[in-house]
């Protein structure tokens, strides 16, 4: 055990945040850690109903399971479930750190209840024909572009819209990731969390990718399409990076004039969500969506089916005949 069992919580919070900083979290994330830790600690300090102790005088021994349960109950009352869940995770990490450092003998957080966080709602492109409008607009090179490369831009959109790839997965693709014989073409994806998967691609996507690689040979020579090279490159032939890919997709939206149909906070991800939503609309099961999108759990895939079912019910409810029928009464 650590020889300072009565260390003050304020000091330990700073030590934890210093240790976390080596993982290079964003300033926003570090600020959220600090806020969650100090806010709940202040509730612990006021637990006896008397004058709250300042955090620099609150000993770690005060953080018992009973006290933590009571503090989290008060913390949760005015807050959304997602905020409570995030704070619980922060405190769980904090106690895991304290146990590893020998400051406390165990982690009390398993005894503290936490709410389930609702799965995020899918955010596909709005408008039934929006994906087709986007592809058609990008396929046309515009004179306003300084160095138009519609073949490359179309390849990016096709992989996101027709294979459901994430941003990180797109960047990780190699030329050899597109494989298989005619009629059985596929993309081998290095998925999130180290979960590889294979996504079948149809002839249309295969033609778009072949056209892109032909245009790349023309621009940079045959050596530019070596099997072990990156599949997606910028206009200088260098591997496309995160910021460049995001800018490319934003540029495609602007050229197509569909910026108002892209959900906020889901710029490139809206293409993946559109792929999954259309799978659900066409009758794919949650298990099939899970395999194709590389979800870690079936629940994530099920949300697309639930949203689609809800949209179908809303469409039926909006039917004028249904509305007229609801206003009728019968007389015997």
TrEMBL record:
UniProt-listed GO biological process terms: DNA integration; DNA recombination
Domain annotation Core-binding (CB): ranges: 7-99
Residue spans crossing the bilayer: none
Entry annotated with the keyword Lipid metabolism: no
Name this protein carries in UniProt: Site-specific recombinase XerD
Naturally occurring in which organism (per UniProt): Micromonospora sediminicola
SUPFAM superfamilies listed in its UniProt record: DNA breaking-rejoining enzymes
Alphabetical list of InterPro entries matching this protein: CB, DNA_brk_join_enz, Integrase-like_cat_sf, Integrase_catalytic, Integrase_recombinase_N, Integrase_SAM-like_N, Tyrosine_recombinase_XerCD
